[in-house]
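To illustrate the input format used throughout this study, we show a single complete record. The first block contains the structure-token representation of the backbone; no residue identities are included at this stage. The design step must infer an amino acid for every position from geometry alone.
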């Protein structure tokens, strides 16, 4: 009985030692913590289209004074000076075509005159046509008009606006010379350019 008892104690002790040994060998495994649940991500909402910037307001244009349509006194004086230097253009008997000397006379200052006139559209000139005393009044009125038109057409060709030129014929009226010879008649067959009277 004692022997059995001793064996039982030995067996229990051996089991205890064995169990303790096994317990020592067992490695505690640290299990990682469970991952935190991921927040559910949704596709980002599309960005609203950019609001267009309001159009930039252009600064109001600075009001400019309207260009004068009539020359001032100093400019009118210069026009009168030019007209004085554009001497009367003369014509052959019973002709209305401009002679070479008439063209030279008109050309002298007419380009400067055209430049000035272009700046003042309301300023006008009158081209007057004249004849000598021979022939009927009706014939000379028509011839004087043809001469005035010839001079006007020349001025238009150098740049004077036709809207700024008017013509008038005096025929054999308003003679410069009253003698009855060719020297006097030549002075009367002419065109004369003058500024229209200002209103």
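Output of the design step:
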């Amino acid at each position: 009985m004692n022997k059995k008892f001793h064996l039982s104690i030995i067996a229990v002790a051996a089991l205890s030692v064995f169990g303790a040994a096994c317990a020592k060998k067992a490695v505690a495994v640290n299990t990682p913590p469970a991952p935190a649940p991921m927040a559910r991500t949704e596709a980002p909402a599309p960005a609203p289209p950019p609001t267009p910037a309001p159009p930039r307001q252009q600064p109001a244009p600075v009001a400019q004074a309207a260009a004068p349509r009539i020359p001032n006194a100093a400019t009118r004086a210069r026009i009168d000076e030019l007209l004085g230097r554009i001497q009367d253009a003369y014509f052959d008997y019973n002709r209305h075509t401009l002679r070479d000397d008439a063209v030279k006379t008109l050309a002298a200052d007419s380009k400067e005159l055209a430049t000035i006139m272009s700046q003042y559209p309301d300023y006008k000139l009158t081209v007057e046509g004249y004849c000598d005393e021979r022939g009927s009044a009706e014939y000379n009125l028509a011839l004087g008009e043809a001469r005035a038109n010839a001079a006007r057409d020349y001025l238009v060709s150098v740049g004077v606006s036709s809207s700024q030129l008017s013509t008038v014929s005096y025929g054999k009226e308003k003679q410069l010379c009253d003698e009855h010879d060719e020297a006097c008649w030549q002075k009367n067959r002419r065109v004369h350019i003058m500024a229209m009277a200002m209103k």
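Structural context for interpreting the output: The longest strand covers residues 165-171. The two ends are 163 Å apart (CA to CA).
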